[in-house]
Design brief:
Blueprint (H helix, E strand, L loop, with lengths): L2 H9 L1 H26 L2 H9 L3 H10 L2 H31 L4 H27 L1 H18 L1 H17 L11 H13 L5 H12 L10 E2 L6 E2 L4 H8 L5 E6 L1 E10 H7 L6 H4 L5 E2 L5 H11 L3 E5 L5 E6 H9 L13 E5 L2 E5 L4 H7 L12 H9 L8 E4 L2 E9 L2 E9 L13
Parallel strand pairs: 2-3, 5-6
Antiparallel strand pairs: 1-7, 3-4, 6-7, 8-9, 9-12, 10-11, 11-12
Organism: Candidatus Ornithomonoglobus merdipullorum
Main location: membrane
Protein name: HlyC/CorC family transporter
Length: 430
């Protein structure tokens, strides 16, 4: 480069420095926008609780995102336009009027895109909380400086909201969105599988009804009020802490006998009716959250479920409700029953008390059953009666074989997923 070229470049150093500052400010505004919109507010609140003043300042700014966004956009556009204007002047001086503006446009577009947008946003996204705290003090000053412009922008926003307001569907965060956030946190390793399941259970807890978790009357163990003491003791020895007490028929439950009360008075002449407590009767559609409150207020651990005619449907216990939050609770008396046991390739022994949704998911069937909730109930519905052992039917790609049953219900079926199966109607095999 000759002396004239060096002299010309030296004359333009202030313009070059100004352009560099503009690109630096553009990077700052872009990174600040990404940081404040990507930061984890829960994490920031935890820092505030630890006494972090910068986190507190950043959260205060984040409370008014409209002012923050308009400040960032105004600042970014001002510096980008200034940089573009000065670049045009520079390249006209260096290259002339004919080609200078074109080269200036190409160079500034590439520089601003790479160093003013992509790079700072990528860096800020990796540590949004740290950059938000770093940026908080300076951006708060700019928000004050641009306050008049922000006021005009807010008036325009109010006009837009009034005429093109939020849709009816925009009603805040839904349960589904919260569950999705929990799943993302689990997949990213921020919470473990137990924490994820507990949160999901807590969210879904208020949607569960008594009929979803009860023990059916066919599985119910109860005693009659005039049963001999030794027979009652034998039932308690099986691991029960409480037993329903009925008079004449299971549809007429008159109380609940606690094992501790029975052991205390069993050697006396005190009748069973004076040892037992009054039963709590509920309907199948009652939410378990409401039942939990009822059991707590009545200091009871068991409720009797009645149908519309007053007949006994089954029972639900406090343990059943707690298990919906924390998962299965096993004690030394419980017999662990696996709902699905694989016995071959695409072949399973299925307990008829298993959840029908879980069975469909296991075999990749995309259906939403409405009338029944258990596998046993679904099989009975397909036949229209309780089938005999050895009977079978095809359902899409599934072959269902009845392997075990009790006198009045099914207990086990064997389900095989066939590699190539036609959609068929229910058939019976004698």
């Amino acid at each position: 480069m000759d002396g004239d070229g060096l002299s010309q470049l030296g004359d333009n150093i202030p313009i070059i420095i100004f352009m560099a500052v503009c690109v630096l400010l553009s990077a700052y505004f872009s990174a600040t926008e990404t940081a404040f919109f990507s930061m984890n507010k829960i994490r920031m609140k935890a820092l505030v609780n630890e006494g972090n003043k910068r986190a507190e300042k950043a959260l205060d700014i984040a409370e008014d995102l409209d002012s923050l966004l308009s400040t960032v956009l105004i600042g970014n556009n001002l510096v980008n336009m200034a940089c573009s204007s000065m670049a045009t002047v520079l390249f006209i001086r260096l290259l002339g009027q004919d080609i200078g503006p074109t080269i200036a446009t190409i160079v500034i577009t590439a520089v601003v895109l790479l160093f003013g947008e992509i790079t700072p946003k990528s860096v800020s996204k990796n540590a949004p909380e740290s950059f938000a705290m770093f940026s908080a003090k300076f951006i708060s000053v700019l928000i004050v400086i641009f306050a008049p412009i922000n006021w005009l922008v807010s008036k325009w926003q109010n006009f837009v909201y009034k005429n093109f307001g939020k849709s009816e569907d925009d009603k805040g965060v839904t349960e589904e969105e919260i569950i999705t956030m929990v799943e993302e946190a689990h997949s990213e390793g921020e919470i473990d599988s137990n924490e994820s399941e507990l949160i999901r259970n807590a969210i879904e807890f208020y949607d569960i009804e008594v009929e979803d978790i009860y023990t059916s009357r066919v599985d119910l163990v109860a005693i009659e009020e005039d049963d001999p003491r030794d027979e009652i003791s034998a039932q308690f020895e099986k691991g029960f802490s409480r037993l329903p007490v009925y008079r004449d028929t299971i549809d007429n439950i008159v109380g609940v006998l606690n094992q501790k009360d029975f052991e205390k008075y069993k050697s006396t002449d005190k009748p069973i009716t004076e040892m037992m407590s009054s039963p709590i009767f509920v309907v199948p559609s009652l939410k378990i959250s409401e039942l939990l409150k009822l059991l707590q207020s009545r200091k009871s651990h068991m409720a009797i479920i009645l149908d519309e005619f007053g007949g006994t449907v089954g029972i639900v216990t406090l343990e059943d409700i707690i298990e919906e939050l924390v998962g299965e609770i096993w004690d030394e008396h419980d017999i662990v029953v696996e709902p699905f046991v694989q016995v071959g390739e695409e072949k399973y022994k299925v307990n008829c008390g298993a959840d029908l949704d879980d069975m469909f998911k296991l075999f990749g069937i995309d259906e939403e059953p409405e009338d029944v909730t258990t596998v046993g109930g679904w099989v009975v519905e397909q036949f229209g009666r309780i089938p005999r052992v050895g009977e079978a039917f095809d359902y899409g790609v599934l072959h269902i074989y009845v392997s075990k049953r009790a006198p009045r219900r099914l207990t086990e079926v064997i389900i095989t997923k066939r590699p190539e199966a036609e959609q068929t109607k229910v058939t019976e095999e004698e």
